[in-house]
Amino acid sequence: MSDKLTEFRDALRAALQDTDPENQIWADTELDQHLIRALFDINSVRPREQKTTLTTTSGSKDLDISSLTDRLDVVKVEFRVGQDPQEFRNFTTWANILTMDIDSLPSAAESVYIYWTSPHLLTTETSTLPAALVNLLLMGGEAFAALAWINKGRSQIVDSIAKLTSVDTALGLIAARVAQAVTDLGTARTGIGLKMTEANTAITNMQARITQAVADIVTARTYMNTLTRGGNPESDYLRASVGELNTATEYLSQARGYLAEDQPAQEKANLASHELTAANGYINEARSRLTGISSKLNIAAMVRQYQADAMQKLALFKAELSRHESITVVPNYSKD
């Protein structure tokens, strides 16, 4: 016996161009969920059509329909059967009792045809979907899989925004270390001599680059709140921030070089050097975190491009659903 669920899952994976087993985007369980969700929508407009024969009880217009498992609706009731033309009856249902609206009382064990609907089945063993609805199932599964992938991309952005807090913390620590280095250098100013100006200039330049890096991160944050904006500005600003931090590191190296050339007031100069070394460590930490954030925001850029396609797939699925919708017209049948 063929595995119907696997058969449809494989067809869906092929439609999504996700057939490389080493680099699959969707797990089997995820694709199964998307197929079942599409099936749920199909059941709402084109459920499984069934026909069951029940028998009457002498002198009663009521029928027990509890055997109609997973019943969604009773569409028609035929009594007496085998007639040409067919004799359909008006009826009412309450819980598991169907009452025929007829004038004459039935005899015992007369056959009644019940036309009713239930949800389609889709398991590893069977599928009750008619061939005309299989493509609709795959169309819906593809749309829901695409939308789920977009939600994964959104979670990457949320994670990136959360990580920006740690970057802000690292940048704050950089600023604190640089400020302490400037204080130490001020105390040692009288002993450092001619290289003091160059060291201070390098430190001032480093502070400016760090300030710009913080500004770039703040700007990047403003672009992270939407997936519909064109381009990828948040990644651009984060890359600019990394560049600012790289430049800051170069100025840090210059400042340390000037300090190393001056012997007077070495104790305070060494303290300043230690502060700058600590600042360098925080710069590396911030750079590492920003690199990870930029990588995730590259995924976000892909999400934006994929979003329009996913929404189009969903719209096509909904339109096709409407085309397959069954409209039931209930006429007024004879009671004879």
Key words describing this protein structure:
6 strands, Butyryl-CoA Dehydrogenase, subunit A, domain 3, 3-stranded antiparallel β-sheet, rod-shaped, 336 residues, 62% helix, mainly alpha, 7 helices, 2 domains
CATH level 3 topology of the largest domain = Butyryl-CoA Dehydrogenase, subunit A, domain 3
Q: What is the strand content?
A: 5-15%
Global geometry: rod-shaped
Number of helices: 7
Description:
By secondary structure, the protein is mainly alpha-helical. The protein folds into two domains: 4-137, no CATH class; 143-323, Butyryl-CoA Dehydrogenase, subunit A, domain 3 (Up-down Bundle), CATH 1.20.140. The chain has helices spanning 4-15, 28-45, 131-187, 189-192, 195-223, 233-261, 266-324; strands at 48-55, 62-64, 73-78, 91-94, 97-100, 111-118. Strands 1-6-3 form a three-stranded antiparallel sheet, with no helix packed on it. Helix 3 packs antiparallel against helix 7.
